[in-house]
Automatic annotation (TrEMBL):
Compositionally skewed regions (Basic and acidic residues) per UniProt: 49-61
Annotated region (Disordered), positions in chain: 39-61
Alphabetical list of Pfam families matching this protein: DBD_Tnp_Mut
Source organism phylogeny: Eukaryota, Viridiplantae, Streptophyta, Embryophyta, Tracheophyta
InterPro entries, per the entry: Transposase_MuDR
Location of the Transposase MuDR plant domain: 98-162
Protein name in the entry: Transposase, MuDR, MULE transposase domain protein
Transmembrane segments: none
Species this chain originates from: Tanacetum coccineum
Length: 412
């Protein structure tokens, strides 16, 4: 409110407001933005004739988390004067340095620092008051503990400054619940980030729980571990939703940078993603000029939030080595996305080509449980005459009729 307010002006204002006598011992608490500490200034009534230009007395408690130990200041000589900095800068602190006066980028950064401190010291806390402009926490055992921290928004920015901290716990630090209540997914992700960036290591839920227990001596649930891992991966790689949103840009740049590339994205009437097709230009040219006139198509299932099927078409060279030609994503190996669509595409685009189905994949779809039935199936696949093929098919019909009908639907 008063950027140029000096100690003398403040003193005179207080004396006049409360009608104090000139020799009244006045004690003021002041906080300067250029210092981390809040200090007390006490007037000396016996030597108060120099218009307050005498040396002030600075007092602080012997044990305070905000001030630290006296040893911190043994080698420091700090000169104080009555001038107030007209443009104070924030005393920005990162990590777990939680004390009065520290300023954090936003409320989320402040919350993370306090939770990490709680994990280190083995206690839990509750929200006492939370609003866009202020933030307050109290100990989980607040009925028997006076631990409390308060923070407010710093000026007109998103930063938050710690304004009050009682860092003394009068409650036992034993955990009331099996799992630490404040170890949310953001905190777990923060702790796991270095390990998640190591692509050689596969972190399982039990591994995460064991790592947190050994390092912080606290327990977290399996659900906390998985949520933290998922959130951490999204922070590093982005969310699946964001990845799908980038598909049009990806396809556009592929077509620009790789001549002959063909891409297609199909959406429903609401604009929701359904299918994707990509054929790389250099792969198409390699197939035409260097590979056998043979395309092999297979699929695998995607894991994660969006359950889809990844389709791939590969070519084969003279050494029986394969190379991807095209790939795509669809809902599954059913309907217009798989068998019927493939057969129709072969008929329309390659009418003179021979189309066959992989025998092993076909066998897996027949649910052949008996060893004798499996042997009969392979006799059918390897039959080289119409008579032999018809005989073995008749035998399968007698042994397992449902498998026989599925083979008839697939076609010879």
């Amino acid at each position: 409110m008063h950027d140029d307010l000096t100690y003398t002006m403040l003193h005179d204002m207080m004396m006049k407001k409360f009608n104090l006598e000139a020799n009244y011992p006045l004690n003021l608490s002041a906080k300067l933005s250029s210092f981390d500490d809040t200090f007390d200034i006490t007037d000396d009534p016996e030597n108060n004739e120099s218009n307050h230009k005498n040396e002030s007395h600075f007092e602080k408690s012997e044990s305070s988390f905000a001030f630290g130990d006296y040893n911190e200041y043994e080698d420091e000589q700090i000169a104080f004067n009555d001038d107030v900095d007209e443009n104070p800068q924030p005393n920005y602190q990162k990590g777990r340095n939680v004390k009065v006066g520290n300023i954090f980028d936003n409320k989320e950064a402040l919350d993370l620092a306090i939770i990490l401190k709680a994990l280190d010291e083995g206690y839990q806390f509750l929200s006492d008051r939370s609003a866009p402009e202020r933030y307050a926490l109290k100990c989980f055992h607040f009925n028997e503990c006076d631990w409390k921290i308060c923070a407010t928004r710093w000026r007109d920015t998103d930063k938050f400054s710690i304004t009050f901290l009682n860092d003394v716990h009068t409650c036992p630090k034993t955990q009331t619940y099996h799992n630490h209540r404040n170890a949310n997914k953001k905190v777990i992700a923060h702790l796991l980030t270095p390990k998640l960036q190591d692509t050689k290591r596969v972190l399982k839920g039990k591994d995460i729980q064991q790592d947190i227990l050994s390092e912080y001596k606290i327990n977290i649930s399996d659900q906390q571990a998985w949520r933290g891992k998922d959130y951490g991966i999204q922070q590093i790689r982005g969310s699946p939703y964001e990845a799908f949103e980038m598909l049009p840009y990806y396809c556009y740049n592929l077509e620009r940078k790789n001549e002959g590339t063909i891409t297609c994205i199909k959406t429903d009437e609401k604009g929701v993603f359904e299918m994707l097709f990509i054929a790389i230009g250099v792969s198409i040219r390699t197939f035409v000029h260097c590979l056998r006139p043979l395309l092999i198509i297979d699929a695998t299932y995607l894991k994660g939030q969006y359950k889809r099927t990844n389709l791939v078409a590969v070519g084969m060279d003279d050494n029986n080595q394969i190379m991807p030609i095209s790939f795509g994503i669809c809902k599954g190996e059913t309907g217009p996305c798989w068998h019927v669509a493939i057969a129709l595409a072969v008929q329309n685009e390659f009418p003179l080509a021979f189309h066959a189905v992989c025998c092993r994949h076909l066998m897996m779809n027949l649910s052949l449980k008996r060893k004798k039935t499996k042997g009969l199936f392979w006799k059918i696949c390897k039959a080289y005459t119409t008579e032999e093929f018809s005989t073995e098919m008749s035998n399968l019909q007698d042994v397992q009729p449902d498998a026989y009908h599925k083979l008839c639907e697939a076609g010879p």
